[in-house]
Amino acid sequence: MGGTERLWLLASLCQVVLLTCEQHLNPVEVEVVFHSFPSTKDSDTYTVTCRTASNQLMYMEPFNHSACSPDCKMSLRLVEDPGGYNITLRASRKDTTLEAKAFHFSIQHDDYCSLDLETSQTTKLKGLQPGTRFKAKVVVTTFLKHLNMTLKQSFSSGMETAQCPPDWLADGRSCYTVRRKGLTWSDAQHHCSGLAAGSHLADLQTLEDLLFISSHLRRHNNLLLLWTGLNDQK
What we know:
Keywords: Disulfide bond, Lectin, Signal. By secondary structure, the chain is mainly beta. It has helices spanning 185-193, 207-217, and strands at 8-17, 19-21, 28-34, 45-52, 57-64, 72-78, 85-93, 96-105, 133-144, 149-161, 169-171, 174-179, 200-201, 223-227. It folds into 2 domains: 10-18 and 163-227, no CATH class; 28-160, Immunoglobulin-like (Sandwich), CATH 2.60.40. Helices cover 9% and strands 44% of the residues. It is elongated.
C-alpha cells in the first residue's frame, strides 16, 4: 500500500497561562497642574502639604508664584499607601492664606497585571517567549473639575513571562501539552489540573492559538481526537 496508515487516538490538550508580575515599591511620580488662584487676589506663594490618612506629614514645600508660566506645576514622589494621601494646596500672600484646595489621592497600581483605567487605547504585545522580562510605563491623567486641577501619575510596571514546565510547548503567554490517555471530559479536566499550578484543558480562543496547535499535531503520523476546555461534556 502506497499510503501512510494513521491511527486516531483520544487525547487531552492541557494549557497553563504563565504571566507573572514583579512586585516593587518604586516611588510614583505625581505631577499637579493648576491655574493661578484665587482669581480675586494675586498670591505670591503656593504651599503643598501631603499627609497620609493617619495624618502623618509626608511632604510640605512652598514655591513662588513666579514659577507659573502660564500654568503652575509641581511634582511629588509617593509610595503606595493603603489609605491614600490627603493633599492640600494653599495660596498665600505675605504669609496670609487667601484660599486652600484639598483632595484625596490614591496610587492606582494595586494590580500591575490587570490595571483597568477605562482607557480607549490598548496595546497588545506579540512574540513574547517564556522567561521574557519587559517594562511598561503608564501615565494616568485625572482632571479634578471641581478644583480646576489636573493630576498626572506616572509609574513603571515590570512583568515577566514564566518558564514552561519541562516538555511543554511554549507559545506566547501559554504553555501546552498533549496527554495521550483515554479519559472522559471530566476526568481529562481533572487530570490537566494536576499537571501544573493553574493548568486546565486548553481554551483556544484565537485563530493563532489553533494554528499553533494544529501545526504541532501535523508533525505526528497519527491523528488525535482532543478534549479541550470548549468540548461538551456529553
